[in-house]
């Protein structure tokens, strides 16, 4: 398998929007009409509150997630299902 490249991984959304604006790139920002009722809005709000309290908290969470990642990819445990 080829590793996935994420060159903009460490950028915040506001930085991406500013980059697109200053480079003259088309940027479409629309939200699904069901988004306010979606579960992902709760963690997003929590992250915004954390960032307002401590500016580097979101970056620290991302870093700690990569440090604590289990070998074998997103599912961890070495990939594949083995015997119990």
Automatic annotation (TrEMBL):
Transmembrane segments: none annotated. GO terms for cellular component: cytosolic tRNA wobble base thiouridylase complex; mitochondrion. One of its GO terms (molecular function) is transferase activity. GO terms for biological process: tRNA wobble position uridine thiolation. InterPro entries: Rossmann-like_a/b/a_fold. SUPFAM superfamilies: Adenine nucleotide alpha hydrolases-like (SSF52402). PANTHER family: ATPASES OF THE PP SUPERFAMILY-RELATED, CYTOPLASMIC TRNA 2-THIOLATION PROTEIN 1. This is CTU1 protein.
């Amino acid at each position: 398998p080829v590793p996935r490249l994420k060159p903009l991984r460490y950028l915040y959304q506001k930085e991406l929007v500013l980059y697109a604006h200053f480079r003259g790139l088309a940027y479409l920002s629309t939200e699904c009409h069901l988004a306010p009722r979606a579960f992902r809005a709760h963690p997003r709000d929590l992250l915004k509150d954390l960032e307002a309290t401590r500016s580097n908290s979101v970056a620290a969470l991302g870093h700690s997630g990569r440090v604590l990642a289990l070998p074998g990819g997103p599912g961890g445990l070495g990939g594949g299902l083995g015997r119990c």
